[in-house]
């Protein structure tokens, strides 16, 4: 390491003598682990610019996820630079700060929106103090660790405190107040009084959301989170003058004065939650306890507008045209809600009296509060005409059930839908005491018997409107690759997450080597799917090189004349293989895993000076060879294996009257041009006889045929191999083969030089465009048999070991409402990507009969009609969610874009933005038996809505 001089240290403000990069890395890692093990509310974390922190990571030799950086920035280009990385300068957080200081003058404001890991990182207090001691700089941006959620509690760093706009009713002056969402209303009053110089007893503050007075925020210990205050919302300051408060009137949206309804004491003391600002940073979860409300009336009193859930909303009250206000990056939530509140069975349920199904005892739910908040929101949307609704109370309840949604960061609409359906189910579960059932194996029983048993057990523990409407059942078959043990289970599902099979192809060149030394290496260029996996590449190569049924291929990457990576996992994505890399494939017997694998690297002696042998050093060259050993005992076995695998490279050589043609004719050995049946090859005193059966046999004793060393893989630790050196059989043996002039004369090493690249990009190459795919092809891809990943191994009860079993899914029982989630977002080590593939899905008459494996259709059809779509536009960095929903009674489609609602033609709802598809089963007439091809009937929870000819 180059030490920095004192002038540099003074200029950059660093303290003390800089440590070695490795030492800085070690200290930070230890301090981070200590902080992880001592999580508690109130701990301090510091926001640090990811731009600066990434430069520190590169300096300390850490792996950096470069896909998080802009590909066009100097930072991303420097990641692949071979130059040594300089020590970073002082900590610089300027790129994540808004210019200047806020109105209060005592707090630095962070830019919005920022993403953790992309724009900033969160450093524990001890780590920040150490980094600041080493580098100085700043400014320091401390943030508190807070606890979120009533049941599934999580620790989260409050990166963005709650920002409130205080409006003084006396002069309309505005101030920005920033407080933690965990701060009390009492703290809010103290802050306002201090800023405005007013006595607390003469102040009252209103929740002034959307410039409308909602309720007085009473001076109490109630938190801002419980008061349902939103990020950037208005609060109104009123000051008592001469013993009188300002006029208790407010303007409605038309400018008319409306008398304020007196606050219900039971409501004002209730608990409602909003969505104060929080960026989910460093977090962990732990179990929590909660004291549930004892009566339904207390839950009802906690709602925002006091809707009576025991009241049935009449048909005349219904609408379905209302939008949802965006509370700050909540378009993902609005999209999912609009799809759900336009699901006919769900609408029918929540417009009726559902109070007797509220489960206040279930510890897995929110004791009915989430269901009541959702029901209240649904009733508003169906009875408010076209007035947009602000889902503040609902978002607060959802944040308590799933804390990750309590902030204002963008999230996934399908993820929210999954949590919401789960929360509604638990709040409406009719089962108060769940019975216990022991899971039984199928043991050869008929599938129908096992499936019915599993479904009965599931319904005995889970019984709600969500299960009735949204849950189906699939069959899962696991097969052990070793003992062929078959395990069959039947599991419930709420939605189907379908992969998008890519039609974009990629050409890849791989050089195939024969581990038995029978044929020269041959490069093959094959075409595979761009988003495929190593299994696809192996299958394509196997077809190209005519791989027999008793052979398999071992894929590997060669870098700097050694094997740097084996592609052992068949599911490893091809996206991890770059075009400029060099791939090889070794042909092995099918059961090569049971044999000892021998990896042979090649070295030559490079002389620094012709007269000075002491300056010589051995360097790697050529392509490694891989072969196998059967029960190796001594060095002779390795020597014999090396001789065998090098045989295709042998030049034509004469031994007396016997001529051995070591060259190749049509890729195989040419026959010896001699009358004798046996040929003798000698080298360094040790001979091998080539028998008629093609096998080699040792003919004399002496030294090994080659100069070999046992190695640790890169040649750093080597020891010479002799004839009698004991060899312990194992999975992998590394050997270094030192080439001399004799090997160069006997063998043609040109076949092991200059491996072709995976793909050489031509300057004139055109970008391949993605073709459209069908929903059925996505479903086929979801249901196809495939091996489990290495991180998802299955414990085989027969082998008593974890195995990478093959898994096959089949649909068994379909729900009335079938939800398809199209997996557009893909993630790998080097890349995060969104697939904008156009999926061609049916709007009418989606027939899934051929996919259902149950012989009994349970008296129901397998034909579905589309009624809602959750759309995602844009990429991973931002994006926007909207929804298409069908009003079935009108047979018309509408576009819900937050608060904006507009009609849309059915022909325009298909697009590459479709993300989550909602289908409803087409009911059959009781006497029809099957769906008639000429006519289908659309039902809405038991009511015939309309009939349509196909």
Automatic annotation (TrEMBL):
<keyword id="KW-0378">Hydrolase</keyword>
<feature type="domain" description="USP">
    <location>
        <begin position="322"/>
        <end position="922"/>
    </location>
</feature>
<dbReference type="InterPro" id="IPR006615">
    <property type="entry name" value="Pept_C19_DUSP"/>
</dbReference>
<dbReference type="GO" id="GO:0016579">
    <property type="term" value="P:protein deubiquitination"/>
</dbReference>
<dbReference type="Pfam" id="PF00443">
    <property type="entry name" value="UCH"/>
</dbReference>
<dbReference type="InterPro" id="IPR028889">
    <property type="entry name" value="USP"/>
</dbReference>
<dbReference type="InterPro" id="IPR035927">
    <property type="entry name" value="DUSP-like_sf"/>
</dbReference>
<dbReference type="InterPro" id="IPR018200">
    <property type="entry name" value="USP_CS"/>
</dbReference>
<dbReference type="Pfam" id="PF06337">
    <property type="entry name" value="DUSP"/>
</dbReference>
<dbReference type="InterPro" id="IPR038765">
    <property type="entry name" value="Papain-like_cys_pep_sf"/>
</dbReference>
<feature type="region of interest" description="Disordered">
    <location>
        <begin position="262"/>
        <end position="290"/>
    </location>
</feature>
<keyword id="KW-0788">Thiol protease</keyword>
<comment type="function">
    <text>Recognizes and hydrolyzes the peptide bond at the C-terminal Gly of ubiquitin. Involved in the processing of poly-ubiquitin precursors as well as that of ubiquitinated proteins.</text>
</comment>
<feature type="domain" description="DUSP">
    <location>
        <begin position="19"/>
        <end position="146"/>
    </location>
</feature>
<keyword id="KW-0833">Ubl conjugation pathway</keyword>
<dbReference type="GO" id="GO:0006508">
    <property type="term" value="P:proteolysis"/>
</dbReference>
<dbReference type="InterPro" id="IPR050185">
    <property type="entry name" value="Ub_carboxyl-term_hydrolase"/>
</dbReference>
<dbReference type="InterPro" id="IPR001394">
    <property type="entry name" value="Peptidase_C19_UCH"/>
</dbReference>
<comment type="similarity">
    <text>Belongs to the peptidase C19 family.</text>
</comment>
<dbReference type="GO" id="GO:0004843">
    <property type="term" value="F:cysteine-type deubiquitinase activity"/>
</dbReference>
<protein>
    <recommendedName>
        <fullName>Ubiquitin carboxyl-terminal hydrolase</fullName>
        <ecNumber>3.4.19.12</ecNumber>
    </recommendedName>
</protein>
<feature type="compositionally biased region" description="Polar residues">
    <location>
        <begin position="266"/>
        <end position="290"/>
    </location>
</feature>
<keyword id="KW-0645">Protease</keyword>
């Amino acid at each position: 390491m180059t030490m920095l001089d004192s002038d540099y240290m003074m200029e950059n403000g660093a303290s003390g003598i800089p440590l070695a990069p490795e030492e800085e890395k070690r200290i930070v890692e230890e301090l981070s682990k200590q902080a992880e093990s001592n999580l508690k509310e109130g701990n301090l974390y510091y926001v640090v610019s990811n731009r600066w922190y990434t430069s520190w990571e590169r300096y300390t030799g850490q792996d950096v996820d470069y896909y998080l950086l802009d590909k066009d920035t100097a930072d991303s280009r420097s990641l692949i630079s071979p130059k040594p990385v300089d020590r970073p300068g002082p900590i610089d957080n300027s790129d994540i700060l808004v210019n200047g200081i806020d109105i209060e003058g005592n707090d630095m404001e962070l830019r919005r929106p920022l993403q953790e890991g992309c724009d900033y990182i969160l450093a524990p207090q001890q780590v920040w103090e150490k980094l600041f001691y080493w580098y100085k700089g700043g400014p320091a941006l401390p943030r508190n660790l807070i606890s979120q959620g009533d049941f599934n509690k999580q620790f989260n760093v409050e990166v963005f405190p709650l920002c409130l706009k205080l409006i003084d009713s006396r002069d309309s002056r505005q101030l920005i107040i920033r407080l933690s969402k965990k701060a009390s209303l009492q703290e809010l009053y103290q802050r306002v009084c201090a800023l405005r110089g007013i006595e607390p007893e003469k102040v009252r503050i209103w929740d002034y959301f959307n410039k409308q007075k909602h309720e007085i925020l009473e001076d109490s210990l109630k938190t801002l989170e419980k008061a349902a205050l939103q990020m950037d919302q208005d609060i109104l300051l009123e000051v008592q003058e001469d013993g009188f408060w300002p006029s208790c009137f407010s303007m409605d949206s038309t400018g008319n004065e409306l008398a304020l309804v007196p606050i219900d004491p039971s409501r004002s003391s209730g608990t409602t939650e909003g969505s104060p600002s929080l960026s989910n940073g460093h977090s962990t979860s732990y179990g929590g306890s909660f004291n549930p409300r004892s009566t339904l009336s207390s839950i009802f009193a906690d709602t925002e507008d006091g809707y009576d859930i025991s009241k049935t909303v009449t048909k005349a009250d219904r609408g379905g045209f209302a939008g949802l206000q965006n509370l700050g990056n909540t378009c993902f939530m609005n999209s999912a809600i609009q799809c759900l509140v336009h699901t006919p069975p769900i609408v029918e349920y929540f417009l009726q009296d559902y109070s007797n199904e509220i489960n206040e005892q279930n510890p897995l739910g929110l004791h009915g509060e989430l269901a009541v908040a959702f029901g209240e929101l649904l009733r508003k949307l169906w009875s408010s005409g076209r007035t947009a609704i602000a889902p503040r109370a609902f978002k607060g309840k959802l944040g308590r059930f799933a804390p990750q949604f309590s902030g204002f960061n963008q999230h996934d609409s399908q993820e929210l839908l999954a949590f919401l359906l789960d929360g509604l189910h638990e709040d409406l579960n009719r089962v108060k005491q769940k019975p216990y059932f022991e899971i039984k194996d199928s043991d050869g029983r008929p599938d129908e018997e096992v499936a019915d048993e599993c479904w009965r057990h599931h319904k005995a523990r889970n019984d709600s409107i969500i299960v009735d409407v949204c849950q189906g059942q699939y069959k899962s078959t696991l097969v052990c690759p070793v003992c062929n043990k078959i395990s069959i289970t039947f599991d419930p599902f709420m939605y189907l997450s379908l992969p998008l099979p890519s039609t974009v192809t990629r050409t890849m060149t791989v050089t195939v080597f024969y581990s038995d030394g029978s044929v020269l290496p041959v490069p093959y260029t094959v075409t595979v799917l761009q988003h495929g996996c190593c299994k696809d590449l192996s299958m394509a190569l196997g077809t190209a090189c005519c791989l027999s049924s008793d052979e398999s291929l071992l894929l590997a990457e060669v870098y700097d004349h050694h094997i740097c990576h084996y592609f052992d996992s068949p599911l490893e994505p091809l996206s991890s293989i770059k075009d400029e890399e060099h791939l090889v494939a070794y042909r092995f017997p099918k059961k090569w895993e049971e044999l000892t694998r021998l990896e042979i690297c090649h070295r030559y002696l490079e002389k620094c000076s012709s007269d000075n042998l002491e300056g010589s050093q051995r360097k790697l060259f050529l392509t490694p060879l891989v072969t196998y050993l059967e029960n190796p005992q001594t060095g002779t076995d390795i020597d014999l294996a090396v001789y065998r695998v090098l045989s295709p490279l042998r030049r034509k050589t004469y031994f007396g009257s016997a001529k051995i043609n070591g060259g190749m004719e049509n890729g195989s050995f040419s026959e010896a041009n001699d009358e004798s049946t046996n040929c003798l090859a000698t080298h360094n005193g040790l001979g091998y006889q080539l028998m008629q059966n093609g096998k080699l046999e040792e003919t004399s004793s002496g030294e090994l045929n080659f100069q070999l060393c046992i190695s640790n893989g890169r040649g750093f630790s080597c020891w010479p191999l002799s004839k009698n050196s004991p060899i312990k059989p194992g999975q992998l043996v590394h050997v270094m083969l030192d080439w001399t002039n004799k090997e160069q004369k006997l063998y043609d090493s040109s076949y092991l030089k200059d491996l072709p690249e995976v793909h050489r990009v031509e300057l004139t190459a055109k970008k391949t465009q993605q073709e459209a795919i069908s929903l059925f092809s996505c479903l086929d891809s979801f249901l196809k048999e495939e091996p489990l990943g290495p991180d998802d191994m299955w414990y085989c009860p027969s082998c008593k070991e974890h195995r990478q079993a093959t898994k096959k899914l089949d649909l068994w029982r379909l729900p009335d409402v079938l939800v398809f989630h199209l997996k557009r977002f893909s993630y790998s080590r080097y890349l995060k990507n969104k697939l904008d593939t156009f999926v061609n899905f049916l709007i009418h008459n989606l027939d899934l009969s051929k996919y259902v494996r149950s012989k009994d259709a349970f008296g129901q059809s397998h034909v579905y009609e589309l009624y809602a779509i959750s759309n995602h536009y844009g990429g991973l960095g931002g994006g926007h969610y909207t929804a298409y929903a069908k009003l079935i009674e009108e047979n018309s489609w509408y576009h819900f874009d937050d608060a904006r609602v507009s009609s849309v033609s059915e022909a325009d709802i298909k697009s590459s933005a479709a993300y989550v598809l909602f289908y409803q089963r087409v009911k059959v007439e009781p006497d029809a038996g099957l769906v008639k091809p000429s006519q289908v009937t659309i039902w809405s929870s038991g009511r015939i809505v309309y009939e349509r000819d196909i």
